[in-house]
UniProtKB/TrEMBL annotation:
<dbReference type="InterPro" id="IPR036188">
    <property type="entry name" value="FAD/NAD-bd_sf"/>
</dbReference>
<dbReference type="InterPro" id="IPR012132">
    <property type="entry name" value="GMC_OxRdtase"/>
</dbReference>
<dbReference type="InterPro" id="IPR007867">
    <property type="entry name" value="GMC_OxRtase_C"/>
</dbReference>
<keyword id="KW-0274">FAD</keyword>
<comment type="similarity">
    <text>Belongs to the GMC oxidoreductase family.</text>
</comment>
<dbReference type="Pfam" id="PF00732">
    <property type="entry name" value="GMC_oxred_N"/>
</dbReference>
<dbReference type="Pfam" id="PF05199">
    <property type="entry name" value="GMC_oxred_C"/>
</dbReference>
<feature type="domain" description="Glucose-methanol-choline oxidoreductase N-terminal">
    <location>
        <begin position="254"/>
        <end position="268"/>
    </location>
</feature>
<protein>
    <submittedName>
        <fullName>GMC family oxidoreductase N-terminal domain-containing protein</fullName>
    </submittedName>
</protein>
<keyword id="KW-0285">Flavoprotein</keyword>
<dbReference type="InterPro" id="IPR000172">
    <property type="entry name" value="GMC_OxRdtase_N"/>
</dbReference>
């Protein structure tokens, strides 16, 4: 078994791992290795914004995860896409760039995560952004390009008017000072192409001689000797290899991958490790617990005619015209993403932040599943609760690294979550019934007006909903001893081991999560550099 030594070893080339690779290698002195299970981001659909619809279940670009069936969601095994490619899930996601509500991060700080309040994190949001629109509190010179929609469909203007008609504001910048209300999405895009974290952070750093990327490599375990992490074991091309770390190892494998790898390494709940015959290095009950995710229920509406919908534009022969538009003008439906606009709203009195987010665009899908458009004109609205109370788990079910863990999000297992999703569905209906949309929105197709009682709406959500691809919080940081990580993202009980990805969140933010992951990783790079300087 061969051995190589680096100052820093980073597991995962997703959003967080790419940030760490760039920042930790920037001084030209510290040697950095990044290990990625997938390969380079060569697939063309990665770089076409609308290509997300074709790669969410791609057998080579994703892990192919599915959840454990749960009675609360119709005993279905749900698809749970996670990227397995340079850029990780930032290469397959819907391109949405959304900051959390300031209170999200202040709540983190109140839970003992010192240095993680909104005022602490805002500089890191600004550091990673390159937002041409500028504005208060926005970054304009960071590595990650952020742009408004390349094409704003006319229907979205009518949605904005309808939002005002039901008493909600319209915001020019969804990441500006006011979050509640209607706004169009911002995308991780430059011109006509997606810019994943790999393209924003990793590729520009590849010429540095002190940065090494090892892809198509499966990490088998973290190596711990005398209470300190000393490296990792990997398998690549059938050969096992050890990578040593002089200073430390950072797990950036995501909210599923990081707790899974810790458990494989003997770090996790003792009963879980014992069930798989793994000798415990550290009994850490919080590893793999506290899984949080947003659960989406999608409504479909019929439009009065095709001028409001893109359903015909994304099938042949009209799709050929759109391909040419994308190639020569950087516009058209190939620049679209699943969320073209968003409505944040409070559905109860006394809330400090929106409790419901509604996303959508002028496309509707057969059977409500992204992929094949309906032949008639339509659009889709996805409704989800911003701060779910349901908690799930990621649990080792085999001692083999190549075997997926058991993923149990436990969606809608709290009464408060059930009530919130029903309120969200009713809000979506009220919005679509507003006067500005008369003569444009013909009628509701799915679930349909006959599904009207709270019980029927909840049954619909349970039977048809799924993940919004925001798993987080499975190796949380906190000030309490039960939190696996301290506020500097260091694993309690083992020196030299950090986790840096969405799993470190104490609670899920009120939004899509990728922008928060980038900011967490930017701050983590500073923390690591500070510790290295002593």
């Amino acid at each position: 078994m061969t051995t190589d030594t680096f100052d820093h070893v980073i597991v995962g080339a997703g959003s967080a791992g790419c940030v760490l690779a760039n920042r930790l290698s920037a001084d030209g002195r510290a040697t950095v290795a990044v290990i990625e299970a997938g390969g380079r981001d060569r697939h063309p659909y990665i770089h076409i914004p609308a290509g997300y619809a074709r790669i969410l279940d791609h057998p080579r670009l994703t892990w192919g995860f599915r959840t454990q069936p749960d009675a609360a969601t119709g005993n279905r095994a749900l698809d749970y896409p996670r990227g397995r490619v340079w850029g990780g899930s930032s290469s397959i996601n819907g391109l949405g760039h959304v900051r959390g509500h300031p209170s999200d991060y202040d709540l983190w700080a109140q839970k003992g995560c010192t240095g993680w309040g909104w005022d602490d994190l805002l500089p890191y949001f600004m550091r990673h952004e390159s937002f041409a629109g500028g504005g208060e509190g926005r970054g304009t010179a960071g590595p990650q390009p952020i742009e408004h929609l390349a094409e704003t469909p006319a229907l979205l203007d009518e949605f904005a008017r309808a939002a005002e008609a039901i008493g909600l504001p319209v915001n020019a910048d969804m990441n500006g000072p006011r979050r509640e209300g209607f706004s169009t999405f911002q995308q991780t895009r430059r011109g006509q192409r997606r810019v994943s974290a790999a393209r924003a952070y990793l590729v520009p750093a590849l010429s540095r001689p002190n940065l090494t990327v090892i892809d198509e490599a499966l990490v088998l375990r973290v190596i711990v000797e005398e209470g300190r992490v000393t490296g990792i074991a990997i398998r690549r091309g059938g050969q096992e290899r050890v990578l040593r770390a002089r200073f430390g190892v950072a797990l950036a494998a995501g909210a599923i991958g990081s707790p899974h790898l810790l458990q494989l390494s003997g770090i996790g709940p003792g009963e879980v490790l014992a069930a798989q015959g793994i000798a415990p290095l550290l009994d850490a009950p919080g590893v793999g617990r506290n899984l949080q995710d947003h659960y989406i229920a999608r409504l479909t509406f019929r439009l009065a005619d095709h001028r409001w919908s893109a359903n015909r534009r994304i099938v042949w022969p009209r799709l050929a015209v759109e391909v040419l538009r994308w190639a020569f003008t950087g516009k058209g439906v190939l620049t679209w993403s699943p969320g073209m606009m968003s409505l944040f709203a409070r559905t109860e009195e006394g809330l400090e932040a929106p409790d419901v987010q509604i996303n959508g665009g002028p496309l509707s899908w057969q059977d409500g599943r992204i992929g094949v458009p309906e032949t008639e004109p339509g659009f889709t609205l996805g409704v989800w609760q911003c701060r779910p109370q349901s908690r799930g788990t990621v649990t080792l079910r085999s001692p083999r690294a190549e075997d997926a863990p058991a993923i149990a999000p436990r969606f809608l297992t709290e009464r408060a979550d059930e009530a919130c999703v029903v309120r969200g569905l009713r809000l979506a209906r009220r919005w679509m019934a507003a006067e500005p949309l008369r003569g444009i929105v013909a009628h509701e197709v799915r679930p349909g007006p006959d599904v009207d009682s709270d019980a029927a709406l909840l049954d619909f959500a349970k039977a048809t909903g799924g993940t919004v691809y925001h798993p987080s919080c499975t190796v949380r940081m906190g000030g309490d001893a039960a939190a696996p990580l301290d506020a500097r993202l260091r694993l309690r009980g083992i020196d030299g081991l950090r986790v840096v990805d969405a799993s470190v969140f104490p609670d899920i933010p009120v939004c899509n999560i990728n922008a928060t992951v980038l900011s967490v990783a930017e701050k983590a790079a500073d923390l690591i550099a500070e510790d290295m300087r002593g």
